[in-house]
Write a structure and sequence with these properties.
CATH superfamily of the largest domain: Aldolase class I
CATH architecture of the largest domain: Alpha-Beta Barrel
Number of domains: 2
Radius of gyration: 20 Å
CATH class of the largest domain: Alpha Beta
Low-confidence stretches: none
Mean pLDDT: 96
Strand content: 15-25%
Structural class: alpha/beta
Largest sheet: 8 strands, mixed
Strand order of the largest sheet: 7-1-2-8-9-10-11-12
Distance between the termini: 38 Å
Shape: globular
Helix content: 25-40%
Length: 294
């Protein structure tokens, strides 16, 4: 039975493809984007996030933790010792202040499928399920089986991907996927490496192959000032030669900084989000190249 590590399910999503959708987030990603807004999805390993501002110092987690990772100090305040945590998730279930969030449950297709079908009546003709992450295609067999099973129920599947996987993980999905939501972050390889820690050669080659194979592809372009803002025209020029359906420009937001701290990640994401004028200028650039902008 195919399994994957799930860290979230978002219902009634309207920005993850056409119509009303349920988005399944799978944990693990080959990239390390400097602006990642889902840092809980980077590692494939289960992880516990602690938000101290929500803690009410009730001590319930101390009793539940088998590894003594939670303690109450002499002043009656909760202390979380991350180095002792075994990521079992038992503390989350008893936390009265919602200060603890456990990310990463290993689930089978049989376990996930009924959760995704709960909202089937709302999908209509255009909606469905979107598989995202992290990078959902680090679990290619799980995604393939799930997409097939969903189609048996008349539910369309979208794949939200960075493209940073072997094409062998993508091609078997073609008959079962409605749309690939494909991220392009930079054209210049050195810029891509600076922004994500990895080359973009496989990513750019994969989108060409997807288009050659007749897939429906919508491109997502994150706009992050001082990181990839000088890549917009190059991305537009590259995409103008491909039969993609549209481009969606995604303005970077800096609302995820608390997640990094809660997960114990010593990473400082970019501070400045783009202005409205910068986003409109980016959209106009794509339109100038004859590309539909959502």
């Amino acid at each position: 039975m195919n399994k994957a590590t799930v860290f979230s399910i978002k219902r009634f999503a309207v920005h993850d493809g056409d119509g009303i959708r349920t988005t399944l987030f799978l944990k693990g990603c080959p990239l390390r984007c400097r602006w990642c807004h889902n840092p809980e999805g980077l590692s494939s390993k289960p992880a516990l996030a602690y938000f101290p501002d929500k803690c009410i110092n009730c001590g319930a987690c101390v009793q539940a933790c088998p590894a003594a990772a939670h303690q109450i100090d002499k002043d009656g305040r909760h202390v979380y010792l991350r180095e002792k945590c075994v990521a079992c998730g038992k503390c989350e279930a008893v936390c009265l202040g919602n200060a603890l969030t456990f990310y990463g449950r290993i689930m089978t297709v049989d376990e996930v499928l009924p959760l995704l079908l709960e909202d089937k009546d709302f999908y209509g003709d255009t909606g469905g399920v979107t598989l995202s992450g992290g990078e959902c295609l680090v679990f290619p067999d799980f995604c393939l089986e799930l997409a097939k099973r969903l189609l048996d129920f008349g539910v369309k599947t979208n794949i939200d991907t960075s493209g940073a996987v072997p094409y062998g993980a993508i091609k078997p999905l073609l008959p079962y996927v409605d749309t690939f939501l494909y991220d392009i972050k930079a054209i210049d390889n050195d810029v891509h490496i600076h922004c994500t820690g990895a080359s973009n050669r496989q990513i750019l080659e994969n989108i060409k192959r997807l288009c050659d194979d007749g897939a429906r592809v919508e491109v997502r372009v994150p706009y992050v000032p001082d990181f990839n803002d000088n890549q917009i025209e190059k991305i537009a020029d590259f995409l103008s030669a491909l039969p993609i359906t549209a481009v969606r420009v995604l303005p970077y937001h800096n609302l995820s900084g608390s997640k990094y701290a809660a997960l114990g990640m010593a990473i400082k994401p970019p501070e400045r989000p783009p202005t409205h004028e910068e986003i409109e200028a980016a959209k106009d650039t794509f339109k100038t190249y004859g590309i539909k902008v959502l």
